[in-house]
Amino acid sequence: MIEENVKAILAGLPPDVLLVAAAKARTADEIKRAINAGVSIIGENYLQEAEAAYAAIGRKVSWHFIGHLQRNKVKKAVRIFDMIETVDSLRLAVKLDEECARLSKVISVLVEVNSGLESQKTGVFPQEVEGLVNKLASMKNLKVEGLMTMGPRSGEPEEARPYFTETKRLFDRLQNLPNVRMRYLSMGMSNTYQIAIEEGANIVRVGTKLFAERDHG
Length: 217
Ligand SMILES: *Cc1c(COP(=O)(O)O)cnc(C)c1O
Known about the structure:
Elements: H1 2-12, E1 18-22, H2 28-36, E2 41-44, H3 47-57, E3 62-65, H4 74-80, E4 83-87, H5 90-102, E5 107-113, H6 126-137, E6 142-149, H7 161-174, E7 184-187, H8 193-198, E8 203-206, H9 208-211
Parallel strand pairs: 1-2, 1-8, 2-3, 3-4, 4-5, 5-6, 6-7
Helix pairs in contact: 4-5
């Protein structure tokens, strides 16, 4: 049951860790059940799905974008989302800043780090993160608040740990930047969120473990 899953996950989180319910391919009804059980942040990967869920649910929760955001979707995205966790280029950031300026809105953003240094993945290479964060910090309608990483997509959960450790190290280094307050480190999914928390995550994004109906017995 979604309700039981949510309660069990929330009960196991340290008080300073935020749960994002990763809701891709879930119906508005499923998302509502998660909200009734205590979820307060919804993570969406696709704008169309987000629009449908947002129309049914509205502003009683926060909305985080956690997918790959195309620039031609930014105009619509900034109307829904409170935070974009996946800023991975200056071009995307400039577009976000422009569209938020039109709405007189300041949007929170995280920089997505390609911690695995794998070229096929989205995200900014670690050595380029500080430069991008500095540029975002000067944009009036963006509030850069931290880092997000996926880690490896397959393999044993423990294999993700070194990627999380590296991203935390980078996050800590950025604490010394002027004009930026790095508050959020978003790492870990269903199989890896406990490991991510041990390595310093304070946002975890959980989908399968939260929404899947488990067989009993
Ligand atoms: C789907 C997704 C998650 C959640 O993954 P689960 O393994 O289902 O918990 C977290 N983060 C992102 C970016 C996702 O796309």
